[in-house]
Amino acid sequence: MNGSVYGPDRNWTVGTAPGIFPFFGHGIALFRHPLAFLKSLPARGDLVEIRLGPQRAWMVCHPDLVQRMLRDTRTFDKGGPQYERLRALMGDGVVTCPHARHRRQRRMLQPPFRPAGVAGHTDLMAEEAASACRDWRAGQRVDVSAAMLGFTTRVVSRVLLSDSLDAATAAEVRHCLAAIVRGLFVRTVVPVDALFRLPTPANHRYRHAVGRVHTIIDAVIAERRRGPGRDDLLGTLLEATRGDGTEPAVTEREVHDQLVSLLLTGSESPSMCLASAFSLLARHPEAERRLHAEVDAVLAGGRRPGPEDLPRLVYTRCVVNETLRHSPPGWLFTRVTTTDTEFAGRRLPRGTTVLYSPYLLHHDEASFPDADRFRPERWLSEDAAGPQGAMIPFSAGGRKCIGDAFSMVETTVALATVASRWRLRHLPGRVPRERPGATLGPRSLVMACEPRPGVPAGGSRAGSLASP
C-alpha cells in the first residue's frame, strides 16, 4: 500500500513496487526489463520498497533524498548486494572500501586525477584514441564496443602501470572484464549465493575471469618490484608500502586491490559512455552534424586535441554530458545503513539495503523535460542540469567517483579524435538496445565506417570486422 509519511522537512511518499515473485522478489523484473521497472517506481513513491531475492530493500526515487543519502556517508555506507559482490572482486580498494578507510585511500590516489594530472595525460589519451581508429577502412564493420574498451583499457593501464601490460595481456583483461560485467549484474539483482555455486558455464566463465585478473595484477606487481621504479600510480603505491612515519604503510594487499579497482572501473564505464555516444549520434544526424562542424573548426587538418583545445570543444562536451544523462554507464547502486536511522519519515534498521539509480533520476520529466530524447544542446543552457542533485553520473558527496574529471576529458578527447576522422553508421536493421549489466551501454555495437570529407579512406578491407 502506498502512503504519505511525514519527514523532517516535507511529506515524503512511501510505497511498494508491484509484482513480487516468490524467492526471486523483484529480481525477475530487474533482470528482464530493468529500465522500464526503474522508470515505473517514482509513481509509487519517493521511497519505494522492493525485494532483491528474499531481501527487503528500498529504492530512493527523489533527487533530494538521493543527495541526502550520498552526503551522509557514515550512515549510508557502501554496501548491500552490489558491493558484497564487488568486494569479492576488488577487495577493499577506493571503490568499495568502507567509509572509515576511504579518506586515506582517496588522498593517496588523488594526484593523477587532479586537474593538473588530468591535463598531463591529455596527449596520451589523444594518442591512444588515434591508434584505436587508425586501421579502420571505408566500409569496414567495426566492433565499436570492443574498440572503445580497448582504448580505455590502454589509457588507464598506462596511467596506472606505464607499459607493463603488453598487447596480448591487455586484450585478455578486456575479455575478462566483459565476462565479469555480465556476471556481476545478475549476482546483484538475485543475491542468492547457492545459484552461483552451481557448475554452469556462466559461473565458470565468471570465476575464471576474476581469477585471471587477479593473477595478471599480481604478476605486474612482482615484475615491477624486480625492475626499476616508474613514475606511475603503481610506483606511488609501492613507495607507500615503505611508509613515511606519518601514516601506516600501505599493505601489499592494498596495492593489489587499488590496481584491480581502478583498472576495471577505469576501463568499463568510459568505454560504455563512448559506445553509447556513437550509437546515439548515428540516430540523431543533426547532433552529429553539429559535433562534426565543431571538431572540424577546432582540430583543423585532423590534428589531435591537446589540453588547450578542451575549452573550445563545447558541443563535444555537451554530447558527453547528454550521453551520461541519457545512458549513464553507472545506472544502479546500493548502500547499506550502518545504524538505525530515520529516512523519508521511515525508520530503517541498521543493515538495511538502500538503492538509487542515476538512470531513474536522469529520465524524470520533472527534472529533464523531454527526458527520453537525446538533446546535447540542452547543456548549452545555464539551467541545463535540472534541479540540484538530479544529474549524478559520477555519484555525489564524499564518495563521488575519484576519476570524474579524468573520465570527462578522456571521453571528450576520444569522441573528438574519432569524429574528426570517421562517421559511424548503424548496420541496416541492427540498432542495438541499451543492455544493462553491471554498467549500462551497448555491449556488441558493430557499426560501419565512413571516412569524413578530406580524410584519407585508407585501404580497402571493406566488410571485415575489426579486432582491436
Write the CATH fold name.
Cytochrome p450
How does the helix and strand content classify structurally?
alpha+beta
Secondary structure tally, helices: 17
As residue ranges, the low-confidence spans are 1-7, 458-468
What's the number of extended β-strand segments? 14
Give the termini separation.
52 Å
Mean pLDDT: 88
Overall morphology: globular
CATH first level: Mainly Alpha
| Helical content (DSSP H or I, runs of 4+) | 40-55%
Radius of gyration: 22 Å
What percentage of the residues does DSSP assign to strands (E)?
5-15%
Named at the architecture level, the CATH assignment is Orthogonal Bundle
Q: Tell me about the biggest sheet?
A: 7 strands, mixed
Whole-number count of domains: 1
Strand order of the largest sheet: 1-2-3-4-10-7-5
CATH superfamily: Cytochrome P450
